[in-house]
């Protein structure tokens, strides 16, 4: 299955340069990838080519927030490389084209066209749950709030971000785990009551959490006010790799207490071999977490952590469970769905 991933130049997710898989490798991708690791494991799993375009036909609310900040758009434009026009992409050479937001005018072709919407609060996300926008074949609902089964085209379908633990571990130099907890930044902002914005209250919450769990707590602060949307000049090339390496050193990961989102940070942690403790309310967590590692709320957290830390047998059981769930729900089943969609698209052109 040949796959192309396409983004517009102002989108901070993914690489900031067009690149073909045959001209790079999992680790080299981080040289042109300054932001979150989202889509990196997916790129490696699919061996996908990336195209960064300069002529999107639509702008999501997320992109408009960047356009409204000319200084941010200027930084991106300054550092983006190998930016092309959408007409320069050889769509016919691919089985699947996946775009980050529905910004293409989709041509009539045997190629399957699908898209994610970057932010679930975006108006495009709500609209797409009813029907894919334009001539797209699939809306990939990363919040898993659409039909889980593919019944025809066009359709909105539950479809997570894809993950590959093989890719993640292939680039890491971590040899041994430390008895430490990695806390999702949203867990700490919730505990710090700082309304999802990182500040000293979140740092103080991390210290209190250490006292409760009797384990070192590590984290990566987010929403840095000096780098809105993670945009810095120069960009933080390789930051995602440094994050994965720091995460991989920790034996445990907790993502309890966050109030929104699918909870995909937990999949990063599972990919690098952390024992993951999550929330029953997050879609990715109840797919991936061992039942003994799910919390109903933050009050459950100390009890669950103590139970896991005290049992090496449970720890091994959890890691085996996570590995199987990661492969089944975040690789195997989504890939089967794409194969089915490709077949449906080709059949439709024969009628």
How many E-type strands? Answer: 12
Tally of discrete structural domains: 2
Structural class estimated from helices and strands? alpha/beta
* Rg result: 20 Å
Spatial gap, N to C terminus? 23 Å
N-to-C order of helices and strands: EHEHHEEEHEEHEHHEHEHEHEHH
Unreliable spans: none
- Helix amount, in percent? 25-40%
Could you report the average pLDDT, rounded to the nearest whole number?
93
The gross shape turns out to be globular
- Widest sheet: strand order? 3-2-1-4-5-6-7
What is the percentage of strand-forming residues?
A: 5-15%
Major β-sheet annotation = 7 strands, parallel
Output the number of helix runs: 12
Notes on the protein architecture:
The protein folds into 2 domains: 181 residues, no CATH class; 162 residues, Glycogen Phosphorylase B (Rossmann fold, 3-Layer(aba) Sandwich), CATH 3.40.50. 36% of the residues lie in helices and 15% in strands. It contains 12 helices and 12 strands. A 7-stranded parallel β-sheet has the order 3-2-1-4-5-6-7. A 5-stranded parallel β-sheet has the order 9-8-10-11-12, with helices on both faces. α1 links the parallel β1 and β2. The radius of gyration is 20 Å and the shape is globular.
Question: What keywords describe this structure?
Answer:
351 residues, alpha/beta, 12 strands, five-stranded parallel beta sheet, Rossmann fold, seven-stranded parallel beta sheet, single chain
Write the layout of secondary structure elements.
Layout: E1 3-8, H1 40-46, E2 49-53, H2 61-67, H3 70-79, E3 83-84, E4 96-100, E5 112-116, H4 123-128, E6 138-141, E7 155-158, H5 165-170, E8 178-183, H6 185-191, H7 200-213, E9 217-218, H8 239-248, E10 250-254, H9 265-271, E11 275-279, H10 283-288, E12 294-295, H11 301-309, H12 312-349
Parallel strand pairs: 1-2, 1-4, 2-3, 4-5, 5-6, 6-7, 8-9, 8-10, 10-11, 11-12
Helix pairs in contact: 6-7
């Amino acid at each position: 299955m040949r796959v192309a991933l396409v983004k517009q130049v102002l989108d901070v997710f993914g690489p900031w340069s067009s690149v073909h898989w045959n001209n790079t490798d999992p680790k080299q991708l981080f040289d042109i990838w300054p932001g979150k690791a989202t889509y990196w494991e997916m790129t490696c799993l699919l061996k996908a080519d990336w195209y960064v375009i300069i002529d999107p036909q639509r702008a999501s609310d997320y992109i408009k927030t960047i356009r409204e900040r000319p200084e941010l758009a200027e930084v991106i434009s300054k550092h983006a490389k190998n930016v092309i026009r959408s007409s320069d992409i050889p769509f016919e050479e691919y089985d699947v084209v996946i775009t980050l937001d529905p910004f293409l005018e989709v041509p009539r072709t045997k190629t399957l066209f699908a898209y994610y919407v970057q932010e679930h609060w975006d108006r495009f996300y709500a609209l797409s749950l009813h029907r894919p926008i334009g001539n797209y074949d699939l809306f990939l609902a990363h919040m898993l709030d659409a039909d889980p089964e593919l019944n025809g085209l066009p359709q909105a379908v539950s479809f997570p971000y894809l993950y590959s633990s093989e890719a993640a571990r292939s680039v890491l130099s971590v040899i041994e785990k430390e008895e430490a907890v990695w806390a999702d930044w949203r867990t700490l902002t919730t505990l710090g009551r700082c309304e999802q914005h990182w500040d000293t209250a979140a740092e103080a919450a991390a210290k209190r959490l250490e006292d409760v769990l009797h384990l070192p707590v590590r984290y990566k602060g987010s929403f840095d006010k000096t780098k809105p949307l993670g945009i810095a000049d120069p960009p933080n090339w390789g930051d995602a790799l440094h994050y994965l390496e720091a995460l991989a050193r920790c034996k445990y990961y907790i993502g309890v207490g966050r109030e929104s989102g699918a909870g995909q940070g937990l999949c990063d942690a599972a990919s690098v071999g952390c024992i993951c403790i999550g929330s029953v309310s997050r879609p990715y967590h109840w797919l991936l977490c061992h039942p003994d590692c799910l919390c109903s709320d933050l009050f459950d957290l100390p009890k669950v952590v103590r139970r896991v830390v005290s049992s090496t047998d449970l720890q091994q059981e959890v890691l085996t469970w996570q590995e199987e769930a990661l492969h089944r729900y975040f690789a195997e089943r989504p890939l089967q769905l794409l194969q089915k969609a490709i077949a449906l698209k080709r059949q439709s052109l024969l009628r």
